From TrEMBL, chains A, B, C, D:
It comes from Malassezia sympodialis (strain ATCC 42132). One of its GO terms (molecular function) is magnesium ion binding. The keyword Metal-binding applies. One of its GO terms (biological process) is tRNA modification. Residues 138-217 form the Thg1 C-terminal domain. It catalyses: a 5'-end ribonucleotide-tRNA(His) + GTP + ATP + H2O = a 5'-end phospho-guanosine-ribonucleotide-tRNA(His) + AMP + 2 diphosphate + H(+). This is tRNA(His) guanylyltransferase. The keyword Transmembrane helix does not apply. Belongs to the tRNA(His) guanylyltransferase family. It comes from the Eukaryota. Keywords: GTP-binding, Magnesium, Metal-binding, Nucleotide-binding, Nucleotidyltransferase, Transferase, tRNA processing.
Amino acid sequence: MAGSRYAYVRDFELADVALPRTFLVVRIDGKGFHKFSHQHGFSKPNDANALELMNEAARHVMREFKGHITLAFGESDEYSFLIDRDSGLYNRRQSKLISHIVSLFTSAYVFAWRRYMDVSLQYPPSFDGRLVMYPTHKEVRDYFAWRQADTHINNLYNTVFWALVLQGGKSEREAHDTLKGTVSAEKHEIMFQQFGINYDKLPAFFRKGTTLVWSPIPDPHRAKPRTELRTLHVDIIGDTFWTPHSEKQPPAAADEVAPYYDNPKRLCGEGLGSHLGL
Amino acid sequence: MAGSRYAYVRDFELADVALPRTFLVVRIDGKGFHKFSHQHGFSKPNDANALELMNEAARHVMREFKGHITLAFGESDEYSFLIDRDSGLYNRRQSKLISHIVSLFTSAYVFAWRRYMDVSLQYPPSFDGRLVMYPTHKEVRDYFAWRQADTHINNLYNTVFWALVLQGGKSEREAHDTLKGTVSAEKHEIMFQQFGINYDKLPAFFRKGTTLVWSPIPDPHRAKPRTELRTLHVDIIGDTFWTPHSEKQPPAAADEVAPYYDNPKRLCGEGLGSHLGL
Amino acid sequence: MAGSRYAYVRDFELADVALPRTFLVVRIDGKGFHKFSHQHGFSKPNDANALELMNEAARHVMREFKGHITLAFGESDEYSFLIDRDSGLYNRRQSKLISHIVSLFTSAYVFAWRRYMDVSLQYPPSFDGRLVMYPTHKEVRDYFAWRQADTHINNLYNTVFWALVLQGGKSEREAHDTLKGTVSAEKHEIMFQQFGINYDKLPAFFRKGTTLVWSPIPDPHRAKPRTELRTLHVDIIGDTFWTPHSEKQPPAAADEVAPYYDNPKRLCGEGLGSHLGL
Amino acid sequence: MAGSRYAYVRDFELADVALPRTFLVVRIDGKGFHKFSHQHGFSKPNDANALELMNEAARHVMREFKGHITLAFGESDEYSFLIDRDSGLYNRRQSKLISHIVSLFTSAYVFAWRRYMDVSLQYPPSFDGRLVMYPTHKEVRDYFAWRQADTHINNLYNTVFWALVLQGGKSEREAHDTLKGTVSAEKHEIMFQQFGINYDKLPAFFRKGTTLVWSPIPDPHRAKPRTELRTLHVDIIGDTFWTPHSEKQPPAAADEVAPYYDNPKRLCGEGLGSHLGL
């Protein structure tokens, strides 16, 4: 065959298999999103539509990899996906996992742009990705706690910063200088005293980021429950999300379950993470 | 800081730096493009518009990484990008290089879809990627020869296959059976005898794939020449593409250079690869 | 400095850090020990002195890496060392860990040769090594179970094989043919019927291999107990080795503890593995 | 089989193949040799016997891997081995290559101790190792230049340091303080003025380190020449070692070749490196 004497170049493809039985986290990050969000007029400090577009792109990834990706968490221009420790997706080849997840996310982001955004997309946005292996449950929970703590820190800063600029009439430099060295309590106070903002009453969407999780739907007629993809804005640092439902409050029968947006328990994500086997 | 006690999870990010001074090739491949091309009615055996869209996405990647990616070659639903051995892009972190290139390509593909295709995009397409390191010039040339030889083999097969189906009225199974075990000369003969197709006269675009290369534009007024991105459909297996211009035919002065589509020498890509330092 | 313009070559040293919080197992294997054991007249099927020399070399490794290597298991010409998941030895650089452990073992083997062996060492023996990461307790226990099960299989075969040859007067080829396809029970029967050997009464040293473990020595006068290195020939597949002492039989006070060779419980290794945090 | 349900633990052994067609350098370093050399009374600044023992251990490695390791360079308690770019030794598995080379070296060092050293070996010495891949000739030459430049710097310092201590009666601290901040010329001057030492007249063994190389022996009766392992103390930074013999001075016929210690050309290593294909 004509190509065969060149085919030796394939021998240079080195294996990059992820260690078996480790949890894999793929985190994607927007490239140049400071400029991108500026050029597309994103609202400050948070653009709800742009964040919903991120969530939609992430849901696309989760649906494509159902049974492999069990949890995702997003904030700002980043999203983290948890691949189950027993997943054999792509034989755990790291470059395949990273690249395909980033590609699916990017593709869905551009594809769904017009459904979420009013302005036209001016140029193709892009993301990069990395993969991290975690050996045990503890590190996985701490990873997601790390990202949500980061959400809190960044969102608190951004909220008071843009209040100073947009409502307080300060320049961006003045706002930075005002906030330099302030601790959390001082930022809360500036918002409340100067702008009447009670930070803790702001939408959980912005304060808690978005958690995507496959949730079992109890169905007495099926041995293996169906699952649905839930979009939550809840605390995932504490135990509530990760602890199974209390015995005393058995889950409602399938036909009695209120939609999650009407169901206070589900809104808080109680126990949904307990199905992840962490 | 609230997040600091979780930040240890970053220590699990292992280095994945590519070996210095190696040439890096990132190859991306369409995921599920058999189904994708069917659902979007791609012409068989080749859809020129869909291939031009691939080229446009690849040019976007090359422009974003100008000075780092020096050459690209595409065929069907795959594209290979050559990163210069001295490039320090992303400090040569493999996961970053793979993921960002795949993301840029995907994004541009979806973004530019409507400029190239008549039908609407029905769902987000995706790609995956891999990275290979090559120590010397020889393997790089052989890598691209391998891909272009593959183009030849696949396109020859596909051309006669679809002639049998679309013009010959055979079922796909019958066409496969007809071609089973045939060598190259027999395929040429089937095309010529039964359908009057002279394979070697078909567009080089389909037979040779697409080569993208930054080409210097001579300019007596500048020490460092400007470059432009060329889109070629030429042989890159032989020496012509890789060998500098003959001394006897000095390059024309800048203002005398015909556009490459009028310039036979440039159409054959003569010497353009000689600037890659291979 | 004269050397500085060459120092860039250090940049080619790529990181090879083991994933944090994984258990590391380094296994070393004799190179060409079939020939080596023949040339040095090792007794068949087991040479107790040669095995004790292996154990001595392994104890040297464990003493050098006390606090890092917590368990070792050896059989025939191989030894496996367990590095604690929290060890930061050599910053977990894999090549350093492998090479230094192999070097220490080799050095001690040659150094101690004359204390254990009657014949002179005729040429330098050598070993190679590999490192494997295990994320959880389960895989670590299964790894050591795998090696001990292997010990059982090999030793059973070798014992009956050499009985056939040395006592039964068969050639090695005849002995192989006799054993071909026999299951475990048949091998036991051949030994018992033809040679009066009750396999289960043979020394545990040969049947169980050697387990090295740091064992705490209770001492009411010290907050942190001293430890001593134990050399055991016990079952490490079942739970006994890994389960803490029963509550009903509290450990004896330090001054009442019999030496382990007089203490049936300690001879069976009961609970010694429970200190490894697996 | 009893062991089979545990055998899955082998799946955790990840590939660590070195990139094809790269030159591999394995460098080994003595562990704790400051203390080791002190306890065994090594002469200062250089112990010729101890260095010869290092060389003997390295020759053992080169003989074991003849056809794979083509060059070695040693100084002080370190040795570097060059594995040919086309070697498929151990299928280029890095951990195997590192560990076996370190083990062979260590074993030979302990084994040959008594032939070279007067004092008894008091405890097992050890080494560690690392492996580096180099894509081209240039980096390989620069790697060995780097090590020999290091030899020069260290030996110059050590020679004047121990002259100050042993002949000049200074304490080690005083000697360090004297040399602090001195450049090369000043060190030469101290040696010459105070101790009458002409550094450039000291044995090349100490100043140049030791280079081991397989050298072809011309033999008109054989198509493929035999080779012998040469032990050289020559400059390998400049071109002489690496450049083929001049045409004007054809190599002597085999039976006329003087032993290398009588042959000035061979003493300078002229052209011996030219057979390495660098």
